[in-house]
Amino acid sequence: MILRIGSFFMSVMVSGATIALPVVAQGSPPYQIYREPAEVVSVNRDRLIQGSKFGKALIDALTIRQQRLVEENASLAADLEREERELTDVRKTIASGEFSILAKAFDEKVKEVRRRQDQKAIELAQALEGAKFRFFNEAEQMITQLMKDNGIVFVLDESAVWIAQGGDITKLIIKRLDAAFQAGQLPLE
Fold first, then answer.
1. In a 3-state reduction of DSSP, which class is residue 169?
2. Are 153 and 40 in contact (CB under 8 A)?
3. Looking at residue 185, what DSSP letter applies?
4. Which of 5, 32, 114, 146 is deepest in the core (most CB within 10 A)?
5. Domains in the chain: how many in total?
6. 89 is a domain residue
């Protein structure tokens, strides 16, 4: 008896699902359905810049500029500290009015040095952004050509892909960037 009730229940469920299917299938969907499979690939942007010779050369050039700025800042700070100690020593030997003039001049000098060094840091940050823009612009052109040549519809950042079987074109783009860089087609400046 239990088996019959179960069978009856299952037949009602199956027939209900069968009846419901044509209703769901009727009408057109509000979005485009691709009839042919779409090629979707991914790229790891970090690996592109860190793994290509062009990206490494850009990073190295900017790292050298940054290191020079750090060294320059350290040297200027040491000079200003020495000058401040000298000014403190002189304070004991001169009148307060004279010291005020020297102290004010020193403060102005410190402000000017900070302003100049801050401007250099801003220029370095802008150079970094410009280099990243140039790098990814070049990579984008190569990816676009690869898309045209291979019928690729979507290129996703690898971080947006949860599960995939193949489809990572990062190595291929790195090879193309390296070839163009070695051929002199991608100057650093």
1. coil
2. yes
3. -
4. 146
5. 1
6. yes
